[in-house]
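Re: Re: token formats

Sure, here are both.
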Amino acid sequence: MLNLKYLLVCLFLCTGFYSCFNNNGSGMNKPLAISKTNDLILVAGKNLWEGITGDTFRYYFESPFPITPNPEPIFNIRYFTFEQIDAEPLRRQLRTYLILINLSDTSTGEYKMFRSDLGEQKYSEMIKSGVNLMYGRDKWARDQLIVYLTGNNIEDLNKSISSNFSRITEKIYAHDESQLQAATFYSGENADLQNKISRDLGISVKIPKEYLQALYLENENMIWLRRDSKKSIINFIVSKIENKDVLTDKMQLVLQNINKFGKLVNADTKGSVLVANVKDMPVLEFTRSINGNEANEFRGIWEMTNDFMGGPYIAYLIENKITGDNIFFFGFTYGPGEDKKFYLQQLMAIAKTIDFTK
């Protein structure tokens, strides 16, 4: 359990830190921050970047996104020194920065900026409390996130990177969420399909306008939607699993439903069906909350039997605590030679809109 005093100090420091960033003039006079989802600007001294600290940072923040057939980094990292950021105004108009600070080296530009932004009183409070992670917003541009990560020395900073990786990742994902939703639904929503799913399945879900119905099985409470382009095919199915059909083993239930659906997928090779590959790649499981409903998230690889087609998938079981029913969401992509991470993130953005209507 978190120490109450420590938690209050964290809240105090973070709240004050946000206000520091807004002292550079009116927010409306600042440009809108620019960059793509998953972009992360690292600001650190050259000695940190080229040493063990840089290796530690890359190990975590450029680790593979779970799960894609070919490794794709979690973040697209661009590195600058403080001097490079300070010298070029355009480099201060990006959306997401992570700044590494060795508190024992008070001569660096990033240390001086951090101490100035925080102010002497809050800096002293931070040192006393041992807090090593802080967030700021809109320092140079609107819709901007600044992550300050500190350590008392090099060894302490390396530990800070590893221990804070998960919470920093979640913070950046949350910051990118509005941009990801905008990219996913840039063309609007398919109101007809949304109304149909709500009426027939009792499920509320936002569907991007360019998705079309591929198959609807009323007796199975299931609909299959897909979006085809020259580079890729993105699919997802939404189905309601009634309480009487729910298994205790959630992963078994998901794999069972993937393989059940996979028999409906056509392929060039006769007799080929879509299955979840559980032999060559792991199935990763996470616990989530979607619109207040408990959800289990699964990531893995699908393939066509007796064929060479395959790709990543993401699946959810979203439970209605009142009725015991579950919504089954299965999204999968196919795009030979294409990166898959952003497609998976778009499917995740769709899944996050799911809720029960009855």
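Second one below.
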Amino acid sequence: MSPTVAIVAPGNMGAGVAARLTENNVTVLTSLAGRGDASAKRAHAAGMQSVDDRALADADFLLSIVPPGDALGLAKRLAPVLSAANAKPVYVDCNAVSPRTALEIAGVIAATGCRFIDAGIIGTPPKPGSTSTKFYVSGPDAPLFATFNEFGLTVRVLDGPLTAASSLKMSYAGITKGFTALGAGMILAAARGGSAEALKAELQESQPALLTFFDRMVPSMYSKAYRWVAELDEISDFVGKDRAENAMLSAAARFYEDIAEDFNGDKDEIAAMDRFLGKQP
């Protein structure tokens, strides 16, 4: 029988995962509490059924897919409902949080009597028929989630500690999002210094793969920068406060704060990056 899955919340990733499951005949529940019209439309398009928090606990699995800064708060919000439930869903935290935060969430969930799986999603929101979005899962109960390989998801079970999946997600995202911040920052510095055209020409000649990476990642970052702030803060926490890398990744978080402000303001810096990448005439 197909499992019933609750996904909170129906953002781009949550709705994408839901659509992948519903096209494989999985019933997907969600909560629209505090969500706007855009979320309701995404949920409807993905085939999700809107229920109240109490009904979420009727699912076999509850997937938390929210911005990193909201992950612990969601677990605390749902804890009374999960504690009161007779049948306990398996709580799968799929958020880009540090192992330390994942352990905090696991502690909240353990007190409810629910089993906990740590998960890290690598890839963009899944599309119909796609297998490029991967769920890495860890912990004693992680093999339970492997059943979703039969329902349209790509699941890889990791050996190691409970938080191995969060560790992998932090490491991978630290490379991709940290490197995107570095590249975007240097593009802006070159623009301010009058060497943007020369920099692009040199990248085309000596580092074409880097230029291709920036061409893909930098524009896609603009609208997501506000969400990447908390993620980079989690990554800086992951590497440890006594490590030099901590300051580097924390600086990337502050960079994304600036880009988020620019995205919601005059977009001067975004325009400069677009000019460099040939995205504007």
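The chain has two domains: 4-161, 167-277. Residues 164-193 form the longest helix (30 residues).
- S.
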